[in-house]
Amino acid sequence: QKEVEQNSGPLSVPEGAIASLNCTYSDRGSQSFFWYRQYSGKSPELIMFIYSNGDKEDGRFTAQLNKASQYVSLLIRDSQPSDSATYLCAVNDSNYQLIWGAGTKLIIKP
Amino acid sequence: GAVVSQHPSWVICKSGTSVKIECRSLDFQATTMFWYRQFPKQSLMLMATSNEGSKATYEQGVEKDKFLINHASLTLSTLTVTSAHPEDSSFYICSARESTGGYNSPLHFGNGTRLTVT
C-alpha cells in the first residue's frame, strides 16, 4: 500500500515566524510532488509543485524535495494569520496515481 | 490560468431525487477529470476518474450506478448522484489536469458542491 504521511497537527506558529510542514512518501519511484492549501469548507488550492531534488521558491513559499530520504517539505516564511489552513501533500507515484496525505492543520497565532 | 468551474456551489434536495453537478475547465483542455468527496473533518476521497470519450474508472466501494459520470468533451464532466439519500450528503469536488501537461502536471480544483439530502 503506497502511502503519503503527514503530521495531522495542529501546528501552531507565531505570526512572522517560519512554518515548516513535512511529508514522507513510501514509493521510491514517485515522480512529482504537490502542496495544496485547504481552508475549512473550501476546496484545495495549489500552492506549489516540485519535480527535482532541491529547493523551489515562490514568494514566501519554499518547497524542498529529498528523493533519497523520501520526504518533501513546505516552508512558509513570514507566516500570516491568513496562512492558517490545512496543508495537503500529494505525490504522483511510479504509476502516476496521485496519493494524498491526510493534511497538517496549521494555525498562525497573531 | 487553469481555472475549473464547478456548479452548483450548493444544493439541497429531497431523498430519492437526482442531482447533477457540472465541472468545466474554462481555459484549458482536460482529457482527465477527477471527482472527490469529502466528509466533514475527513480527508479527500477519490471517487472516480473521468476520461473524455470513455467510461469512468471508479474507486473500490463507489457505486457506479449511483454516481453517474459523463465526460462528453475536453472541457466538461458531470457527476449525477441518482436516488440521493441523506448519507450522500457531502462536499463533492472536481479537479482537472491539463491535457498538454502530462501525468506529472498538477490538478486544479473546482470550488466544490455542498450537497445536502433531506
Total beta strands of chain B: 11
Computed Rg of chain A: 13 Å
Computed structural class of chain B? mainly beta
SSE run of chain A: EEEEEEEEEEE
Count of helical regions of chain A: 0
Estimate percent helicity of chain A.
under 10%
Task: Write down how many β-strands of chain A occur, each being a DSSP E stretch of 2 or more residues.
Answer: 11
Q: Average pLDDT value of chain B?
A: 93
What percentage of amino acids of chain B are in beta strands?
Answer: over 45%
Give the C-alpha Rg of chain B: 13 Å
Q: Helix count of chain B? A: 0
Helix content of chain B: under 10%
Strand content of chain A: over 45%
Q: What kind of assembly state do the chains in view correspond to?
A: heterodimer
Amino- and carboxy-terminal Cα gap of chain A: 40 Å
Low-confidence stretches of chain B: none
| Low-pLDDT regions of chain A | none
Which secondary-structure class do the elements of chain A indicate? mainly beta
For the sheet with most strands of chain A, the description reads: 6 strands, mixed
Mean pLDDT of chain A: 95
